[in-house]
Design goal:
Elements lengths: L6 E7 L4 H4 L2 H11 L3 E7 L10 E2 L4 E2 L2 H19 L19 H13 L4 H13 L8 H10 L4 H10 L1 H15 L7 E6 L2 E6 L4 H12 L12 H11 L4 H7 L4 H13 L3 E6 L2 E6 L10
Parallel strand pairs: 1-2
Antiparallel strand pairs: 1-5, 3-4, 5-6, 7-8
Protein name: Putative dithiol-disulfide isomerase involved in polyketide biosynthesis
Keywords: Isomerase
Pfam family, one: Thioredoxin_5
Amino acid sequence: MEDRQILEILAFTDPVCTWCWGSEPVLRKLQVGYGGQVRIRPVMGGLVKDIRTFYDRANDIGGDPEGSNASIAAHWLEASEVHGMPVRTDGFRLFTAETVSTYPQNVAYKAAELIDPALAPRYLRRLREASAAEARETGRREVLVELAGEVGLDRSALIGRLADGTAERAFRADLEATRRFGVRGFPTFALCFGGCTRLLRGYQRFQALRAAIERLSEGALQWRTPTPDADGLRDFLRTFGRAAPVELATVFDLAPSDLEPFLAALEAAGTLRRVTAGNGCFWEAGDPFTELGAV
């Protein structure tokens, strides 16, 4: 496939942005439906440089690090009711007197990208899961390193990249790109195809994002609707890892009334595992994966 046929999506983001977390179902659906015709490239925008000088007027977030946690947790819970991705507010402590910024998570992702570009997306996903659905203190260096090991990244290499300044410089380059594109909030998506770029600001529903892609590409991209059966679900989970119910419903165009009994049947067969996460759950594939027919 020639490069001119590939649509690149620059996803301006931050690992702990709740609306970026809520965009995961849509981005995964685009990856499945368009396959290799679409390339998604995360650009780290650095949501909070210092919570002590940060202020989100709409959600009354900012100022004292410890005091901000309750406001952030409440905002994330409200957002979860809209986007459907799980969040955990019990024990939530994103900021402390020692961890006042989200920049460490951004820099850690850039370190992962430098070490292993193939594993970097899994690390970014793991950062989002740990921050949003597990209430892990991902601003701490030891947590960032632990999460790297969980996805198979070389932890020593990550520590090295964090220490030698290369990850920091890569993050600064992303910040410059964020400024150059005029990005003021997250997520923001820059759709690039055939020399043209279209910017979409804020959280996007799938229909709106796909419509923008189709207009920009003038129908040059071919869409493949995934089959909502056990094989399709297995392939998806093995490719992307664990998924929240809203992700499965979005990717496979399933109503909850159809999805829930299907997942329950797979769980009863021992081929799927439900993992509780905050106010929701994730589903993971098990082996062997038994064919139970289409939904």
